[in-house]
Amino acid sequence: MAKKADKTRARLPRGFVDRHASDIRAVDEMCAKIREVYERYGFDPVETPIFEYTDALGKFLPDQDRPNEGVFSVQDDDEQWLSLRYDLTAPLARHVAENFNDIQLPYRTYRAGYVFRNEKPGPGRFRQFMQFDADTVGAPGVAADAEMCMMMADVMEALGLEGQYVIRVNNRKVLDGVMEAIGVTDEAQKLTILRAIDKADKFPVSEIAKLLGGGRWDGDKEGEGDFTKGAGLNDEQITRLINITGWREKNSGSVGASNTITIENLLLDFENSPKVTEACDELNTIQRLCAAAGYDEARILIDPSVVRGLEYYTGPVFEAELTAEIPNEKGEIVRFGSVGGGGRYDGLVSRFRGQPVPATGFSIGVSRLATALKNLGKLGQDPVLPPVLVTVMDGDTEAMAKYQQFTQALRAAGIRAEMYQGNWKKFGNQLKYADRRGSPLAIIQGADERANGEVQIKDLIEGKKLSAEIESNEEWREARVAQMTVSEGELVETVHKMLAAQAEASKS
Prior knowledge:
Layout: H1 21-40, E1 44-45, E2 51-53, H2 54-57, E3 73-75, E4 81-84, H3 89-98, E5 107-116, E6 128-137, H4 143-158, E7 165-171, H5 172-181, H6 187-197, H7 205-212, E8 215-217, E9 227-229, H8 235-250, H9 259-269, H10 274-292, E10 300-302, E11 316-327, E12 333-344, H11 350-353, E13 359-365, H12 366-375, E14 388-390, H13 397-412, E15 417-419, H14 427-437, E16 441-444, H15 447-452, E17 454-459, H16 460-467, H17 473-479, E18 483-487, H18 491-507
Parallel strand pairs: 1-5, 7-10, 14-15, 14-16
Antiparallel strand pairs: 2-4, 3-4, 5-6, 6-13, 7-11, 8-9, 11-12, 12-13, 16-17, 17-18
């Protein structure tokens, strides 16, 4: 007995997903609206490759739980290490530095693309995902940061999220000053603290306290699941940091949450910290500029708990958070939380230039935001109509030429159409194919119709409805359900009318 040939097992790597037509179209629809806002603000597109030299990316990863520090890396034939980009900001910094003498500062750009993280995948956490960024390089004043916050708000509005989002703003110098005030000087410990506070939108205060202290188990009970080592702070230090993250709840929703009062409270609590004082001056400027432009605290809110996970931020940081309760894929009502964010990163381009190059920007998590919008019914509500199917009754060259002619005539008129390319000899299979495709109409021409210069058009949607009322094959043949015969010259016009009638009927 012959041994079966070994077959390669079809499987996806963990943390990666295939994208299907409806998802792709929904994301394209969303990105078009985002792009329109970016363009209105005077930003221009730029594109960088997905691979960079590893040393050019730097060590600013949000997680380092992999041997190659969170990135996917390969060695080139000249033994230099290349890595897939983990965000769109580090490649932009390299691009600006490499083309510094040829670009106009301030350099205002936007770009969309996939980024890659060699991290442990989990629910909603993928190794490949899309971001849509906008950045201003060469603008030192916080007016550029204020503009980023306003543009983020305008993006949310353009996507139909009025009253369902808030842009939360903080300053990394606040956190630097606070850690200095509580006696934290070790850089590794600072980074652990930042990452703990950054999880304020995912965990309750009690869990954040564990991450700031001895550590946290992610299982249902102590000792279960994976263990995350904490920052090792004492109770007094934890309390002072928790007081900052606690303002998030107090200021939630902007009612009674004055940006001015928040800044004043910061100054009172850390009045002896020059860094906190400088940060508060910048936050005050941002909130005043935003308020003058008509962006109140319901849209742009000062929130000292905002951190951002990446290490390269040096000043103001901000996040776009959805405040609406949204059903997830399982129908459970959840708070989506952050769908994008960014901040000032004055040191990133300077790594290459050896001179100060100020920069600020923000990044939208495309897949996360698209999921929220779809679940809110604000995206993908106008699906692309499936194609009209031109069936094949005869396989000779003359007949096939006719079918192709019909197909091209429909396409030229702006109608999605395809000619059946499978085994044409079993006509029933063609109609089954049309049904699976969701085709609204089928075009049919046999030898008799071709001799008379005619064509049949079958309304597959109406046919489905009527077929439920017909009890026998004889009745079906006699009724010729939802089917009409027109001249070849009337084909395009009739198809247009039938599709319009279907669209109108679907609304009622």
